[in-house]
Design goal:
135 residues, mainly beta, ten-stranded antiparallel sheet, globular
């Protein structure tokens, strides 16, 4: 049975955010700003419905979805694109596949103790973020 990810998580670290943003064609000034941000994550997981809020001092991003059901995701706040997205479980990892202009785009979340891991991909770039559960 997949874990329940409900909780509030604080940023701990990240690796290769600049490369990931470059793969999404984000301009250099915005990349530098985003690389300085330390986002929090709030996840509400109720059965087959999830809400993931990414909270920063620049802007917030809310992803609200039903597991296993494809939906159109508006990534305007991120990179100005829309894509067809489906989020589902692969074992104990929550996996998101985003079909659109960029090849190999998506992410996966998983827990290791009280740490939430996020692995984001776009083209050939991989960014990893780690968060610690605080409530």
């Amino acid at each position: 049975m997949p874990p329940n990810l409900t909780g509030y998580y604080r940023f701990v670290s990240q690796d290769n955010m600049d490369g990931y943003l470059r793969a999404l064609d984000i301009n250099v000034a915005l990349r530098k700003l985003v690389c300085l941000l330390k986002p929090d994550k709030e996840i509400i997981h109720a059965g087959d419905h999830m809400t993931i809020r990414t909270i920063t001092s620049l802007r917030n991003y809310i992803m609200d979805f039903d597991l296993g059901k494809e939906f159109e995701e508006d990534l305007g706040p991120v990179d100005g694109r829309k894509c067809q997205t489906v989020v589902s479980w692969e074992g104990e990892q929550l996996v998101c596949e985003q079909q659109g202009e960029k090849r190999n785009r998506g992410w996966r979340h998983w827990l290791e103790g009280d740490h939430l891991h996020l692995r984001m991909t776009a083209e050939d770039e991989v960014c990893v973020q780690i968060f610690r559960k605080v409530k």
